[in-house]
Amino acid sequence: MSFGQLERDGFDTGGATPMSDINVTPLVDVMLVLLVIFMVTAPLMVSGLKIDLPQAQATVPVKTAGSVSVVLDRELRLFVDERPTALDALERQLTELARTDPDTEVLLRVDAAVPYGRVATLIGQVQAAGLSRIGFVAEPGAAPATGR
Fold first, then answer.
1. Cα Rg of the chain (Å, integer)
2. pLDDT digits (tens, 9 = 90+) for 87-130
3. What CATH code is carried by the domain that includes residue 88?
């Protein structure tokens, strides 16, 4: 069968041929939109509270099943396991923890700008709730000079 015979039989051999290349423009558009979404949401996904812990020669504390983290930031806001908590709710939570497990360790993370008197009050509240195992969390680093 020749080319001329195909044209006579009604087959249209002229015109556009089917496109065999993939159009990547929609793919690039989708990828750019996803990139922007991830760039906007990534900073929001970082969990944790921003506090300026004092530096000391210390190891990084390990949060165990029998411990609770209490955070006091520079605005004197309280957090229990990174959830905001009011002062009266803190006392109730600590009392309940002492009732269920008196060996629960309280890991105190206090901002360096918080006055010592407020820290002492917080320690007293923890002890009044019935918990006596208290750990202080500090940033690992060099110990400050003692001046001696």
1. 32
2. 888 888 888 888 888 888 888 888 888 888 888 888 888 888 88
3. 3.30.420.270
